[in-house]
Amino acid sequence: MAAGLTRKNITETVERHRAYFATDVTRTHAWRRQQLDALERLLVERSADIVEALRADLHKHPTESELTEIGFVLAELRLARRKLRRWMRGSRVPVPLALAPARARTVPQPLGSVLIVGPWNYPVQLLLAPLVGALAAGNTVVVKPGELAPVTSELIGRLIPEYLDEQAVAVVEGGAEVSGWLLDQPWDHIFYTGGSRVGKIVAEKAARHLTPVTLELGGKSPVFVDGTGNLKAVARRIAWAKFMNAGQTCVAPDYVLVTPDAQERLQTELIVAVRELYGEDPEQSADYGRLVSTDHYLRLTSMLRLGTVVSGGRKEVGSRYLEPTILTDVLPTSSVMTEEIFGPVLPIVSVADAAAAIAFINERDKPLALYVMSARRSVRREFLERTSSGALAFNVGAAHLSVPGLPFGGVGASGMGAYHGKRTFDVFSHQRAVLSKPLAPDTLRLVYPPYTPRKSRFVTSLLRRLS
Length: 467
Prior knowledge:
Layout lengths: L6 H15 L7 H17 L1 H12 L3 H28 L1 E3 L9 E8 L2 E5 L7 H12 L3 E5 L5 H14 L5 E3 L4 H8 L5 E5 L2 H13 L4 E4 L4 E5 L5 H13 L9 E6 L1 H19 L15 H10 L4 E4 L3 E2 L4 E2 L2 E4 L6 H4 L6 E6 L3 H9 L6 E5 L3 H10 L4 E4 L13 E2 L5 E2 L1 E2 L2 H6 L1 E8 L16 H14 L1
Parallel strand pairs: 3-4, 3-6, 4-5, 6-7, 8-9, 8-15, 9-14, 13-14, 15-16
Antiparallel strand pairs: 1-2, 2-20, 7-18, 10-13, 11-12, 17-19
């Protein structure tokens, strides 16, 4: 749905989805399973087309696309399909003795018609992984791909109607105006991945309809390095997490805080690590990506003036190429340290010790991810107890996304709500409370009025024993 799209078209789509949801077709296990199977076929049968689209939009290597986009969604999908019956059953809940005999449980129910707005940096993973949960939970869904990845957006717009139930799943393409029309609709849930500026708009528009939202935002994810442990491995892990997808990853290390005794060694090892990953000239590497747009390129290259370039810095506007770049001598108040970088520029800031790093981090918005590279257990414990972030990873960067049992989401300015694994199913479900108590014996007579002295003594005694 793209050419000639109007606000009326979107309203009609939402109304059709609501009518279809009312038929109860999407509530059945069979329908949910069929949609998950169909989505798997889409990803497997059209993987070559998806890889080609990602190459066109972001210059992603096929292996990176398989690993971080297609394979990621397949893993989420296969887990959901394997656990679907169990997730749909809900769970038993203990009943207080005062209510016995009785049974209590939670029963997950689909929310209804939901909207998923995806970004451009991982235009397959971050759109279709939430879709897995929305379908598994039995909802009708409108997905809005990121318009800055136009080839991938157009491909998704063609493939989803071919494979999924068109009465329940629709793709809406377009820019800011279309997003505005979508957000004006009365959804049962909105799932948005992107920047905090638009995230605020999403939250404001959702509030008009009291629509619950999941906001997967970003921010500045710091790395602390104290020089303990294998610094070569530390540098390789930072470089891999930072420069994957040309730094256009929401959980990429945004800046490094390093103790003075380790700074020079770390800088040297980072330069070596970049060379190991992408060769002497990353521009010639098939493994290194490109920036998504000229505007993004101009914003990032302007940051190179805000510090001393110790490695990288070469650029080419026509192909939107920016070499993996390491900056030092940056001011904490400059834009490279106050705005999310979201590109292949890595500032390094010297801090006295772990306590100073914690203070530096806590003075700023809570990050989506925080990475601590230290062999000292006491240092790791300090960061665990004294900082707040969406995720905390020790001695590795970005890898926590690949653990289905870990929630992925932010806190404070980095987002609200979390998903992955069963949590994605839960995001798009209402946990309905169900209590069942037989009519005989009617034990509630003990608490019905009138409240005689004997009843009052009994109730007081019972409550005290249960407390």
